[in-house]
Amino acid sequence: MVLSNHVECTTMSPKKIKELTEKKHRVETGLFLVEGEKNIVELLHSDFEIVALLGTKQFIGAIMPHIREYEQNPEHPEFTLEETTEAVLVRSGTLVSNNAGIAVARQKDAASIESLLEAAQKSIVVLLDDVRDPGNLGTIIRTADWYGVTYIAASPTTTDFYSSKVIGATMGSFTRASITYVELEDLLLQAKKLHIPVIVAHMEGENIHTTELPNKGFLLMGSESHGVSSLSQSFATNMVTIPRFGKAESLNVSVATGILLDAMRSER
Amino acid sequence: MVLSNHVECTTMSPKKIKELTEKKHRVETGLFLVEGEKNIVELLHSDFEIVALLGTKQFIGAIMPHIREYEQNPEHPEFTLEETTEAVLVRSGTLVSNNAGIAVARQKDAASIESLLEAAQKSIVVLLDDVRDPGNLGTIIRTADWYGVTYIAASPTTTDFYSSKVIGATMGSFTRASITYVELEDLLLQAKKLHIPVIVAHMEGENIHTTELPNKGFLLMGSESHGVSSLSQSFATNMVTIPRFGKAESLNVSVATGILLDAMRSER
User: Among residues 229-248 of chain B, which lie with CB inside 8 Å of chain A?
Assistant: First the structure.
């Protein structure tokens, strides 16, 4: 690492870092922000490449063992480590208060359609059709991680994985997730040819507790407002329903994902 | 209803309405805001008393059948109905854009400890220990409604039920929920005397899929950051755990509530 105590020496100004809160700049640079202690510690133990790490003196001191461990990996290039103030952290990132730090990391390549198909033949892959809320996407990634699901494919209209709100809501699980943005119909067409199960939640489906659920394949979740599109729905091999006992019209998409993954895993 | 087309005639100015986004003013007035089409339509079919309803001409036209139905109930006092512009709606409420309306409604009395204990002897009552995020509380209320759970008791540190973000996230389920803020220890002490089950999620608990779960009693959920306090935990009659297959350290509290309610309901 290159330790810098002066803003002049850093490779990235607060302004440049702040720009990464916008998708346009994330796409241009291939970088993204990681904020919050838990997320930064998990980042240091992941296979993401870190470009810069800013933090208060106290925070950098506290996470130094993790930084040393990161640096011991010869594959990791040097990065800028900078002690800074809470005021600069707030100015550079998205949090209202930040007495820890901000990391700038490099985005990873998305998985290919082939690897998604391969994964779905061995385990569960979650497909997201138009999930717009960053909190929901982050919570789904965290939930998938709990159930050992690594691969997620999302429609191009789904909110950006690398947005700070998504990363924040994953509580570190972003480091173990692989998200690919893809036209779901293209993927589902191939899934059909390979006879990969496609599980879709639907009001008229089979009760998840009394029907036999596959423990691999694609679990397709719809948007907050419109559910799964009818075109995507037409690829379903298993229509399932979460039994309802009250009057709510629907469940939140991340809650429904949790209940379905739990049912699929507990079937084994 | 008293139909008013002029801001001068309404009983509540945009400023007065906007004030209800602050807890202080909600406590002072006993009123709260309801925004969004789905929430307003559900409000009109609930036993909440409506004080004022502002909306665009188009929105009021669209929901007029629901308004008429509300008015036919002789127990409902008259309320102010006002046609207004999107600009006024945005200025009066919390949404970035609002082409529908805003309702001002009167808060209901909370349930007594006695009725919570009675409910927990017949069905499931959710207890929330320090849930701070409004989105999480709203989603928990929506999830509880899906599973037919009406009564929720929350520690005084839990976020305010009547905040606009909570109401928004319930997607109409706030109309069927009863939330009581109470010192959980007081309630749990009484529950113990009455031998009411207290279910607590805990890493070291019994697997929810292999242990027999009670289908009534208190389901105690902890905060986002600290889980269930050790004092509250000491009242647990059933320590349960959601089996984990991956590496996430924990689940989001509303996702965990969904999975636990699903398991408790499917046991029957």
Answer: 242-248
